[in-house]
Structures are given as structure tokens and as C-alpha cells.
Amino acid sequence: MGERIHATYWLETGDDPARAAEVIAGEQSSGTFVALATETPELKARAGARVERLEVIDTSRTPSLPTPKQASVYTRCVLELSWPIENLGACLPTLMATIAGNLYELRAVTGLRLIDLQLPPSFAAAYPGPAFGIAGTRRLAGVAHGPLIGTIIKPSVGLSADETAEQVRALIAGGIDFIKDDELQADGPNCPFENRVRAVMRVVNDAADRTGKKAMVAFNLTGDLDKMRRRHDLVLAQGGTCVMACLNSVGLVGLLELRRHSQLPIHAHRAGWGYLSRSPALGFDFAPLQKIWRLAGADHLHVNGLRNKFSEPDASVIAAARSVLAPVMASAELPAMPVFSSGQTGLQAHDTYAALGRADLIHAAGGGIFGHPRGVPAGVEALRASWQAAMEGIPLAQQAQRVPALAEALEFWR
Amino acid sequence: MGERIHATYWLETGDDPARAAEVIAGEQSSGTFVALATETPELKARAGARVERLEVIDTSRTPSLPTPKQASVYTRCVLELSWPIENLGACLPTLMATIAGNLYELRAVTGLRLIDLQLPPSFAAAYPGPAFGIAGTRRLAGVAHGPLIGTIIKPSVGLSADETAEQVRALIAGGIDFIKDDELQADGPNCPFENRVRAVMRVVNDAADRTGKKAMVAFNLTGDLDKMRRRHDLVLAQGGTCVMACLNSVGLVGLLELRRHSQLPIHAHRAGWGYLSRSPALGFDFAPLQKIWRLAGADHLHVNGLRNKFSEPDASVIAAARSVLAPVMASAELPAMPVFSSGQTGLQAHDTYAALGRADLIHAAGGGIFGHPRGVPAGVEALRASWQAAMEGIPLAQQAQRVPALAEALEFWR
Predict the structure, then answer these.
(1) Contact B48, B83 (CB under 8 A)
(2) Looking at the complex, does the CB of residue A371 fall below 8 Å from at least one CB of chain B?
(3) Which residues of B touch A23 (CB under 8 A)?
């Protein structure tokens, strides 16, 4: 086929960087710790990973990660490797073992972070990508323009199915577009999935019958595969329009199988993202990883939000959101929708819109909606008015003069 | 049910540790960033995570992980939390979101590592655990006592199916017990799974017909679920006795479904373990994680090896191996077999045996076998003789006087 997979890393090494790059390329393809007669030049030319680029950034006197192999200086570089697709085929699980397998454990490595991934067209031929993406989500949610204004059921766990439905009733009465379960709430005995879906969908369907607008509810069906399938079927049968799964809980095969089965958009939660990303010298940027999840079928992908309550910096949030809105590859866009949440209010609308240049996203606010002195309807109105202002280039203060709910919201958002 | 799940963390925080502990407990159960009227005392008592233990270890002037919330001092503690099983039920995927979800991203957290996990009996009732474990593996491999002497096909990728079978022929002629594919080698066009299995199993079956002993070959079937099932069925039909999957590539649902389908032991590779563990202030110890993989069905679990070629320290290797040999819980042992590899020779046999007190393990050596001047049979003999000495309390040098292959091996192992 002649196609190659390209992965780019931030690398820190106490070795000569060129030698470290070769060790990594070897470990992840035909090489090993000792020279083998069977690794012939022909075999290496055919199956070896290739060092495509190695650019030194800077150096450090101390290693970012512990290693038994001490050095006097540690060099940071950008390292791009490539692999022939003939090594693995267009297989996402084996891709993970290839680009993100043993290499993180090498002694020569005192820092390694996957920062970019370029996949050849075979992967788009082998994997379907999101079934709904932006257009399908907008159609099902009945939101043609602007962000989906959303929220998360709180408390995360502890409400009964009926209490959850009551909260949904208030949110829908307030005009919300999108509601999601918390990632902790799947099918616990305190709030069984089936009871919750039936209770919530009664409320959703009643409102849709009255108003013609059906709020999208992402029911968290995370679990074993047979249960995920049954839960999906229940949501579908009850007229639901979205299911949610925790990516790092179900894994790639879980998402792939859900995509294969699902007739609804898949809201992909990345709970656990911190352990994959929180050390700057280890793990993953979101941009390369989200390509894999999108190929596997994620329609919506969480990216935190600007000035969020977690530790992720704004630059990382925006880079993540841009990556979700960018094509997976030139020949296959596979559009998906970024989901902004955590400490969000209308105050982030202008900056978010300015950074992305578009509003194909879900903006989920909790306290920013519930905290409004005139309740949920005014909270939703204020958040929507903020986005309208952002998209029309109107300053927020000016918009607040026209929209009392926004003026009131600005009092407690700040 | 009254059962609770207990997870213990190494925590570093710039906050007051007691407050940080409550924030973490809240984020992972009924709390959120703002106080909610709906989080009633009754709800919190029912669904809230509980701080069971908080012990300060030491302090640091600098945070281990970056945070926007600076402090003058960062306190390291052991934090034990517990959750009522009613929150989630006995569901491994939601367990992951609960014990290893958003909490890693909290601002108050500048270091967080899961170091222990105690699960209630419901999990053992809901999940089958390894189908073969130690006893089943010994039976299928025809090794009643001592370690399975093993190796890994090298080069990892690049050999054709027939070349792989030729390597297997030499290994089996040399008396090897166990052979595994590399984690990079699954079903690439260069060495298709079906061709490889058919070619290798011809060799394995021929030898078994002649000698009565069938070497166990762990074929790496990692991939999409339908393909993993078909590959498993092929291995089974060809008389194979083991399949291998990369845990972090297929995820929990992948392993659970493989376990549900498989009639063979599952050799679980942990490629990617580095990104989950390499920062001491982030991620996971292996002990808690391997409980989840064992409940999900892993029969063999990789643990590196003493004085390995990677960066993992010996203490971590032994802790991991001991955890695999320890019961998952008092009421459900779910025995599995640790797999030692990376830079292994007979030189590690005594220390490994001394640390574990038993030899229910797979000891995989590459160069330590292939490098023997008299070839694979002498390499296997030397490794086996080392273990025999270790188990019988005979010094290696003394054993070498009785076993010429070992005496020769000692020349190149050192």
C-alpha cells in the first residue's frame, strides 16, 4: 500500500537524541535491546519505524521522569516517527500499541508525550467515524445555529430516577437544548438506568409533544457490552436522541462496538483524562487521541472549558476544541462536536467563539444556569443571549442592556 | 447491600489536606464545585464518598504536577476513600470512572496516584475472573512445576508467517514451554494472523505429536471485537492453547468480551503501562489496576522483570508480581500468572524466586536464550537449570558445575 503512519512526540532524553530516537523507533518496530542477526537490512527497511524529524528544543539538568540511567544533561526534542502500515494494517487497537506502547517505559526516555498523529486513508476506509457528528446532532436537538446550551444533572449521583426526571422537567421548561448524566451515574441501584430513562423520557416526550422541540439527553450507558446494547435499545425505544459512554472506562473496543450498534449520537466522556495528560512530560495531547476516538465513532468529545474549575490551561482547552473541529484527515473530515463544561457561564462565550470562529459546540453550564435568581429559564436565556452577542460581535455589556436575564446573570457569574 | 468500595491514593495538594480530601470525595460522588441545595444531608449520607483515612507523609515546596492554584507548601498524604456500591453497582467500567475519573484533573491535586483498591464480593459475583489461571495454564502447557520457560518472537515485526514458524520450530526443538507474539504483531499485511497461526500451529502440532508436549503459543489477536473472536476461533480450531491481547489497546470492554468468548487462556499485555505509571506523582500502581483486569478475565499479566531493560525499578516489579499472585479479594482468589520479561536470563531466577516464594510464573527470555553459543536448546536448558537451582536452594555457581549449558550461559549472561 505504501502508506505510512506518522506520530510526533515531545521527547526528553539523557542520551544523545539521535540515538534515543533510533532506540524508540527500534523498540516500536523491528528492533530490540540486542542486535539480532534476523533483523536483516531488508527486514529493517521493510518493517522498521523511521525517524522523520528530530529537532532539539532545549535542555535541562534534571530529568522530568525518574530513570535508572542518569545523565548530566537532558535534551528536549520534537521527534516524528513513521511506520509502514504493512506492520499493523488499519487497526486502531494495534495502532495504540504501536504509537503509545512500550516506548514510554524506555530508560533513554525521561519524558515522552504524543503531540500529533497523521493517519493514512486506510484508517478512514476501515472505520466509520461519527454517525451523526455536528449536522446530525443539530438535527436531532433541533438547534440549527449557535451552540447547544446544555447542562449536567447534579448532584452527580444520589438522585432517584424520579428526582432526576423532576430536574429534567425544570430544565426543559427553561428551554435547555441538551442535558447529560454525570459520568458517575450509569446504572447504580440508587438510580437504575431503565427507571431513569423511562422517567426522564416521559418528561422529554411530553414537552416535545407540547412544544415541538425535543431536548437531547445523553444517557450514560457505560458498562459491559451486552448491557450497553440493551441500554441503547431502551433509550432508542423511549424516543431518546443520545447516549453517553466514558471512553477510558469502556476502551476502544467498547466504543467501536457501541458505534456498530448505535442508532444515536455517542456523547464521549473522557473521565480519566487527567491521568493521561496531567504531567506535561508524559502521556498525550488531546489532538492525536481524539482522532482515534472520532474514527472509532465519537460524535461529541469533552474538552473542559475556558477558565474551567479543573487544572487544564485555556490554551490546552482551545487546542483540544480546535482539534475536534478539524478534519481527522484530508480525505475524511469525520466532524464531531466539542463539549465545553466545568465552571462555564456566558462569560466564556465571546472568548470561546473568538478562539474557534464557530459555534458548532455544546456549552454545558451548571451553576451558571441554576444559580440565576429568576431560575432556570432566565439562566438558559442569559447563556443563549451571551452566545448570540458573541456570534454577532456585540459586547456582552451591550447585550445585557437588551436582555434583562443576562444583566441579572452578570451579577452572579462574576 | 451495604457494601463499600475502598480506593487508596498517594495525594499531593497545595490545599489543606482535609479540605482537598473532601473536594476529591465530592467530585467523585454527590458534590460539585458549588454548594447545591439539592445535595441534601440525606443524599450526601447515602451517596457521598467518605474519607476513611488521611495520613500526612511529608511536604514539598514545589508541586509535582502543574496547577493554576499555587501554594507555599504542598502536602503529601495517603488518602483512602470509600463509596457505597449503590452508587454504581458491580460495574467495572463505571468503577474506573469513579475511582480514576475527573479527580486527577482537580486544581487542589498536584499529585495523585491510585495505590490500592479493595472491592466488595459483588464484583466477584458479577465478573468471572480468569478462566484458566495458574492451574489451567500449567495443564495446557504441560508444565506441572516451576516456571514456564518462555520467549518472544523477534524481530517483533517484519518476519513473514513462515519465518515466524521457522523460529518457533527452533524454539520448540530447544524445549521451550511458552512463546508469545510481540505486542506490535497482530494482523498486519506483512504477517497476517491467519497465515501465522496456521504456519506456527503446524509446527507446534507436529512437535506435540512426536513428543507429547505442546508448547503454548500466545497469539496476539488484539483488534476489533469481531476480528478478535474470529482469530480466537482460528487458534482454537488449529489446536492452539493461548491468545494474547493488549489491555490498553482493547480496553475493559474488549477484555470482558474476549473473556466471554474465549475457550483459551488470555495472555494480557500491558503495552502503554508507562504512560499510566511512569510519573511517580500520577496514575496508577499496578496492584489496584491488575485486580480489575483479573476480574475481567486476564490469565497472565506482564510485570517486567528484575533488572529489566526498561525504567521500572525492581521494587515495583516485585510489588506487581506479588499483587498478581495475591487473591483479588478474600472471597475470590482468581489466581493469575505473572509474566516476567525484558532483559531476563537465569541470573534473575534466584532473586525472583526469593521475592515471590513460588514459581507460578512465566519467565520469558530473548537474548538470554538465543545468545547461547550452543543455540536455543542449551539456552533453554540453562534457564531451566537456573530455576531448578533457585527452587532447590542451590547456588547458581554450584548448579553450573553440574550443568555445562548453564556454565556456558553464565559467560554471556553476565
Answers:
(1) no
(2) yes
(3) none
Residue A266's CATH number: 3.20.20.110
User: Is there a single domain that holds both residue B201 and residue B295?
Assistant: yes
pLDDT at B1 over 70: no
Q: Which of residues 153-212 of A touch B (CB under 8 A)?
A: 154-159, 163, 167, 183-184, 186-190
Both B76 and B220 in one domain: the answer is no
Residue B357 C-alpha, separation from nearest chain A C-alpha, in angstroms: 26
A70 close to B (CB below 8 A): no
What pTM did the predictor assign?
A: 0.97
Q: What is the average pLDDT score of chain B?
A: 96
Residues in chain A closer than 8 A to B278 (CB atoms):
65-66, 104-105, 282
Q: Are residues A313 and A401 in the same domain?
A: yes
Report the alpha-carbon distance of residue A167 to residue A203 in Å, rounded.
Answer: 10
Query: What domain range is B297 assigned to?
Result: 133-413
What's the rounded mean pLDDT across residues B300-328? 97
ipTM higher than the 0.90 cut:
yes
pLDDT for A33 equals 73
Counting the structural domains of chain A, the total is 2
Domain edge (last residue) among B95, B126, B157: B126
pLDDT of residue A39: 85
Query: Which of B154-176 are b and which e, b meaning 16 or more Cβ less than 10 Å from the residue's Cβ?
Result: bbbbbbebebbbbbbbebbebbb
- Whole-number Å distance between alpha carbons of B239 and B209: 12
Q: Which amino acid is at B333?
A: E
* Of B116, B163, B362, B228, the residue nearest A37 (C-alpha): B163
Which residues of chain B neighbour A69 with C-beta distances below 8 Å? 311
What pLDDT sits at residue A285? 98
Mean pLDDT (chain A) is 96
Q: Are residues B290 and B405 in the same domain?
A: yes
Over the stretch B123-137, which tens digit does the pLDDT of each residue have? 999 999 999 999 999
Three cell numbers at B33?
Answer: 464545585
Scanning B307-366 for CB atoms below 8 A from A yields: 309-313, 342-343, 366
Asked if B324 and B290 touch (Cβ cutoff 8 Å), the reply is yes
Low-confidence ranges of chain A (pLDDT < 50): none
Residue B33 has pLDDT above 80, yes or no: no
What is the tens place of the pLDDT at every residue in B164-209?
A: 999 999 999 999 999 999 999 999 999 999 999 999 999 999 999 9
Are A254 and B254 contacting, i.e. CB atoms less than 8 angstroms apart?
yes
